[in-house]
Specification:
Blueprint lengths: L1 H10 L1 H10 L8 H13 L5 H34 L7 H14 L3 H4 L6 H11 L4 H36 L2 H29 L2
Helix pairs in contact: 2-4, 3-4, 3-8, 4-7, 4-8, 5-7
Organism: Desulfotruncus arcticus DSM 17038
Keywords: Membrane, Transmembrane, Transmembrane helix
Protein name: Membrane protein DedA, SNARE-associated domain
């Protein structure tokens, strides 16, 4: 993460755009972390919140559009043969299919918050020949909600960080950080467990 934050510190919006463009294509990049970090930088005046939001949305929409058309053009046979190379093996495809069967097109919105589903739902939509206009409505709306959540969360944390530094000693805010990390880890494990269970 230190390398990534160094890149963001140096190249800012360019790194934000590239990461948010590549993650929807299936690359294991820390999109949530990058957005939150940019929000923190916005809180300290090093980046602009509105520009960060727009750049992140443009990057994400670019990646989501490319993944849809890749799935649409390449089709089922290609991904059955080569899906494992893009972290799109049968297990993840079945997991995504389960979400679509149970939640329909709304999974394109909530799927951004589900590890694994976010990365392949664009391909899956294209493979299933979903009309692009319908895909765009749900997927693009989901992107705006997802990005707004983490960018604003990052700014909020950044503001709280400044408050903590000015009012508490090192031990106090270090304890807060540890508690936050424990909470995030708990959420991650809980979501991951549910995802495995539902994918069966």
């Amino acid at each position: 993460m230190e390398l990534i934050t160094a890149w963001v510190d140096q190249y800012g919006y360019i790194v934000l755009f590239i990461v948010l463009m590549l993650e929807p294509l299936g690359l294991p990049l820390p999109g949530e972390f990058i957005m939150s970090y940019c929000g923190i930088l916005a809180a300290t005046g090093q980046m602009n919140l509105a520009i960060s939001f727009v750049i992140a949305v443009l990057g994400c929409l670019t990646g989501r559009t490319v993944s849809y058309w890749a799935g649409y053009k390449l089709g089922v046979p290609f991904f059955q043969k080569n899906g494992h190379r893009f972290h799109m093996g049968p297990e993840k495809m079945e997991k995504t299919a389960w979400w679509f069967r149970n939640y329909g097109n709304w999974v394109l919105i909530i799927g951004y918050f589900i590890p694994g589903v976010r990365h392949i739902s664009g391909y899956f939509s294209g493979i299933s020949q979903m009309p692009f206009s319908k895909y765009a409505v749900y997927a693009y709306t989901g992107a705006v909600i997802w990005i707004g959540t983490f960018v604003v969360l990052g700014k909020f944390l950044g503001l709280q960080w400044k408050l903590l530094r000015s009012n508490f000693d090192l031990d106090a805010w270090a304890l807060v950080i540890v508690l936050m990390l424990i909470f995030i880890f708990y959420l991650y494990k809980n979501i991951r467990y549910k995802g495995k269970y539902m994918g069966k």
